[in-house]
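Hi V.,

Quick status before I head out on leave. The structure for the redesign project is tokenized and pasted below; the design run finished overnight.
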């Protein structure tokens, strides 16, 4: 497959379309995470469809003091990776093509969800992100658009915008791709020194610690549901060689701290330890949130949640998250 590089929307619109068009939006500096998105898009579009990868470093997403000027721009390498991964087109417009006449006066506003977590740390970021996503959806006219779950708040806001403003496009989230040591793939990883990278592993380490604590709790809840809360239950627990106090799954699963509080505590411990490393990790936020609005969940929460973290190591700011699902004690799994 030969991937075509296009610079204008007119060139893209002039292409003959047959099957579905799937779009992967990027800011370039492509890595294996992007390759996974492109391969997933290829599978969705099928052999008769078309995969378009956009490469555009959006100035509206960068606040004062952020890394717009040093953000890596590697179009030749991006084109090669896109081609290897199955893209038909790389659409790499200029700033003037996307924003004719300068920065737009009319923009998309992210609303209350856009003011939380990343939005609080980076004011205006999500307004700029949604504005360029809206414009690129209009410019590329896809049937489906794919985004990585590593940027969970971004994905949630795009889904909300598409629903609230009646965009005729399907949004697909693709699971986070990680390097062998667990660090989530990011274009910013290249900024890390060896020592900074070792510290940065605390982000994924904290998430995995919270995830493990959650899995243990859910396993205890499942075991408690399987054994009736009667004398036969105690006898059954004793039969597997565990003491009543240690093996009472009901007591352990509902003890304090438990549920979301225990998940937060397990993750926080890893981050606190990383703050004492050299170089240290400087925590921006650790949050356990409802993905529908990115508000913190309570201890009685049931359903899908996102455990998210953002921190700086040296001059580099990194984010990561994992999805979790909380069941109620009496619910079937």
């Amino acid at each position: 497959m030969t991937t075509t590089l296009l610079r204008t929307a007119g060139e893209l619109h002039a292409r003959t379309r047959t099957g579905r068009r799937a779009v992967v939006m990027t800011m370039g500096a492509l890595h294996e995470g992007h390759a996974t998105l492109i391969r997933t898009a290829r599978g969705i579009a099928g052999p008769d469809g078309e995969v378009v990868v956009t490469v555009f470093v959006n100035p509206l997403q960068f606040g004062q003091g952020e890394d717009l000027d040093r953000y890596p721009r590697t179009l030749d390498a991006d084109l090669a990776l896109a081609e290897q991964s199955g893209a038909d087109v790389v659409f790499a417009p200029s700033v003037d093509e996307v924003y004719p006449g300068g920065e737009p006066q009319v923009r998309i506003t992210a609303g209350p969800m856009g003011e939380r977590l990343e939005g609080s740390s980076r004011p205006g970021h999500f307004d700029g992100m949604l504005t360029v996503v809206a414009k690129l959806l209009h410019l590329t006219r896809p049937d489906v658009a794919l985004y990585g779950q590593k940027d969970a708040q971004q994905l949630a806001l795009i889904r909300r915008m598409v629903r609230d403003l009646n965009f005729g496009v399907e949004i697909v989230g693709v699971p986070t791709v990680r390097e062998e040591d667990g660090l989530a793939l990011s274009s910013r990883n290249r900024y890390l020194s060896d020592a900074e990278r070792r510290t940065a592993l605390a982000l994924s380490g904290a998430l995995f610690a919270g995830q493990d604590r959650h899995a243990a709790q859910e396993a205890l809840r499942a075991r408690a549901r399987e054994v009736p809360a009667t004398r036969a239950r105690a006898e059954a627990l004793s039969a597997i060689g565990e003491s009543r106090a240690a093996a009472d799954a009901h007591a352990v699963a509902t003890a304090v701290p438990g549920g979301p509080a225990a998940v937060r505590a397990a993750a926080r411990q890893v981050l606190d330890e990383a703050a004492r490393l050299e170089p240290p990790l400087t925590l921006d936020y650790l949050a356990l949130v409802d993905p529908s609005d990115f508000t913190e969940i309570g201890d009685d929460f049931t359903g899908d949640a996102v455990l998210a973290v953002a921190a700086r190591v040296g001059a580099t700011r990194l984010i990561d998250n994992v999805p979790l699902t909380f069941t109620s004690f009496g619910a079937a799994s």
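Above is the designed sequence. The two ends are 45 Å apart (CA to CA).

G. will cover questions while I'm gone.

Best,
W.
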